[in-house]
Design a protein that fits this description.
Elements lengths: L5 E6 L7 E6 L2 E7 L16 E3 L8 E3 L19 H10 L4
Antiparallel strand pairs: 1-2, 2-3, 4-5
């Protein structure tokens, strides 16, 4: 029932290998470099709790683990935010 800030960044050249980084409550939780090339799915829908097993933006999505909870805000940026930018976003949005 507690509020938690979760941020995921994806950094790397389009069509190349990328690094995925997970932050929880503004703190680094983990990071992994993808082993295959990644192409951002521009102009494709964003699904939370679905996996695109077809490896294309328009491929058939397979339900894996649905997200059960409330999402206050989803923000997409054109660049991967730095750890400092994510920590600042968490501080700005702390409940009073």
């Amino acid at each position: 029932g507690a509020r938690t800030h979760v941020a995921v960044t994806l950094a790397g050249p389009a069509g190349g290998t990328a690094t995925v980084t997970l932050y929880v409550a503004g703190q680094l939780f983990g990071s992994k470099t993808l082993t295959t090339a990644y192409a951002p799915p521009y102009d494709a829908p964003l699904f939370i709790g679905l996996e695109n097993t077809a490896n294309t933006p328009t491929g058939t999505q397979t339900l894996r683990t649905p997200f059960l909870g409330w999402i206050q805000e989803v923000v997409l940026h054109r660049k991967a935010l730095s750890a400092e930018e994510i920590a600042n976003h968490v501080d700005i949005n702390r409940p009073a």
